[in-house]
Design goal:
GPCR_opsins; receptor; single chain; vision; mainly alpha; 14 helices; 375 residues; Rhopdopsin 7-helix transmembrane proteins; 2 domains; two-stranded antiparallel sheet; three-stranded mixed β-sheet
């Protein structure tokens, strides 16, 4: 079924860039940078998660889902926008526009729902540990990920059947939901309002409230321990993990907030002249940056990721150079064995016959000379 009766009458001007050639070049380079950084960063995250797949926790499974979203979105869809920017128009017409709009909306909702799930589960763990123990089971997390993808795909597919529409954005180099459908018909208005309220505003509020509650709870508990002079290494590690997910969640909200605000304003402006193309392109580029920084947050806060990254880079280096494998590094990283050992008595020295007979122990009058070969 066609998206809208206006599809057949849509002219090429809708797919032409409304920016200058220089601005198009800058937009193309910016999106290309996002694609490259996201593919490298999230690719490393996925490789590391595969290497430690047997030790993955529930929250880390959701991080894998988020990395998959960021990786695939940049590989499957953003190249269309990049190439179109260099050609000063959207390439492929309505077919690629629908493909791009549908795919980006699915992955955008998946990212939003995944971070919402992470925030709620972290909140349950911090404030209600018993409830968290059930939700963090691997089977439940996998089921939750499937539900996230299913809901995102179903809601995003409604414009394919006439409820809503995917159209070029005002600057002409990207496609998204027709936010101006609010003025087209009642059913399109309902879809636009539900999309904004139920799938943008409510998840964002859940993320903010959950993460603020977590941060307050962890900070208060750490303060209570510090006032009593108690140092709890387990709670210190928990605080680092909480800060990691706090940065991921708020980074996502901050990146998408300008685009959500501009889209919301665009809903209620019937005439496009009230919103300039430049007013859309900058928030859109800022929102795309949300695919970049999550890997850096993982590697900064998570020591396990740091160790796995070192091992991965070291193994890759030895493979490329043809040198000995990482065992050389492991041997080199061990502390050197001292040439002599201090023993309090000869009896204690005899507890280590290999050292004693090698003449490497100090006791009484100096190193004991080797007199016999150990059996």
């Amino acid at each position: 079924m066609p998206l809208n009766s206006s599809d057949g009458n849509r002219t090429n001007s809708a797919f032409s860039s409304k920016l200058s050639s220089e601005a198009d070049l800058c937009v193309g380079l910016a999106i290309l940078s996002v694609v490259l950084l996201s593919v490298v960063g999230n690719g490393l995250v996925l490789v590391i998660c595969y290497r430690k797949r047997k030790k993955m926790s529930g929250s880390e499974l959701l991080c894998i889902n988020l990395a998959v979203v960021d990786f695939l979105c940049c590989v499957c869809f953003y190249p269309f926008s990049t190439v179109s920017s260099f050609h000063h128009m959207w390439l492929g017409g309505n077919v690629t526009c629908v493909y791009y709009g549908l795919g980006c909306y699915i992955f955008g909702l998946c990212g939003m729902f995944t971070i919402t799930a992470i925030s709620i589960i972290r909140y349950l763990k911090t404030c209600y540990s018993l409830a968290h123990s059930f939700w963090l089971k691997a089977a439940n997390i996998r089921l939750l990920c499937c539900i996230i993808w299913l809901v995102s795909a179903v809601w995003s597919s409604f414009p394919l059947f006439g409820w809503g529409e995917y159209v070029p954005e005002p600057y002409g180099l990207s496609c998204t939901v027709a936010w101006r459908g609010y003025h087209t018909s009642t059913k399109d208005a309902i879809y636009v309002i539900c999309s904004f309220v139920c799938f943008t505003l409510v998840p964002a509020l859940l993320i903010v409230v959950s993460q603020c509650s977590i941060l307050y709870k962890v900070s208060r508990f750490s303060y209570e321990l510090s006032t009593k002079g108690i140092r709890n290494n387990l709670r210190h590690a928990e605080k680092r993990i909480s800060m990691m997910f706090f940065c991921i969640s708020f980074g996502f909200v901050i990146a998408w907030a300008p685009y959500a605000v501009v889209s919301f304003l665009f809903i209620f402006h019937k005439e496009p002249r009230y919103m300039s193309p430049e007013g859309f392109v900058l928030p859109a580029l800022f929102a795309k940056s949300s695919h970049i920084y999550n890997p850096f947050i993982y590697f900064y806060f998570n020591k396990t990721f740091q160790q796995e990254l070192r091992r991965l880079l070291l193994a890759s280096y030895h493979k490329l150079t043809g040198t000995e494998s990482g065992s050389t590094f492991l041997r080199a990283s061990r502390p050197p064995i001292p040439s002599t050992f201090s023993c309090r008595s000869e009896a204690a020295c005899k507890g280590n016959p290999k050292r004693c007979t090698a003449g490497k122990c100090l006791h009484a009058g100096g190193p004991r000379q080797r007199t016999s070969t150990p059996s």
